[in-house]
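Justification of computing resources. Each target in the renewal requires a structure prediction run like the one illustrated here; the chain below, 222 residues long, is used simply to show the kind of job we budget for.
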Amino acid sequence: MEETQQHHSNTQTSQQQVAIHQLACHDCDLLQVIPPLEVGQAARCIRCDALLYRNQKNSVDRSLAFAITGLILFVIANMFPLLSLKALGVVQDGTLLSTSLSLFNAERPLLAVIILFTTIIFPATTLVGTIVVLIQVKTNRINEYTALVFRFLRSTDAWGMLEIFMLAVLVSVVKLGDLADVIYGLSLYAFCLLVITLTLLSYSLNPHDVWNSLRNYRGCNI
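Resulting structure tokens:
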């Protein structure tokens, strides 16, 4: 009886280890076994050559540093004006939050809500949630909600559109340059650095490293 239980336990452990190294291609859905990779190596789909997994050095530590830096820049970007317009001696400031409020006052509530979510709520949620998950993984304090939070963050990744908002700001600056004096605020520089930091975070964060850590926690629902 004990030998049967031990064999069953070993079988479950073996199946779990195999499952950790099996990935379905995001492009063609082909399930493949990922071989052991050295640091810097990457695995590609044997059918469509899409990138499956990249073994990055210190992925969690580097991503945590980028996430904390991004959160600091996000706070600075929301504390001060992005731009100030000076015309006929009158100066008008503009912040991220005032952009949404201005659209509400202009009777465009749907666009205001979209701007509010894509420039403030989703980026803040992504940064705070990523920091919490990575700290739990790094300190081995994973709980039953860690996987749910990380899955939610992965599903809302595409809703952070700070790059598009930055492009809109640059276009507005060019158009308003002939009508008024444009004064660049501290938040604009913080906002530009925030966009770069989020890009580096997206590149450095290896979700498979996080999932592998979550799989080792028995009570984590994956």
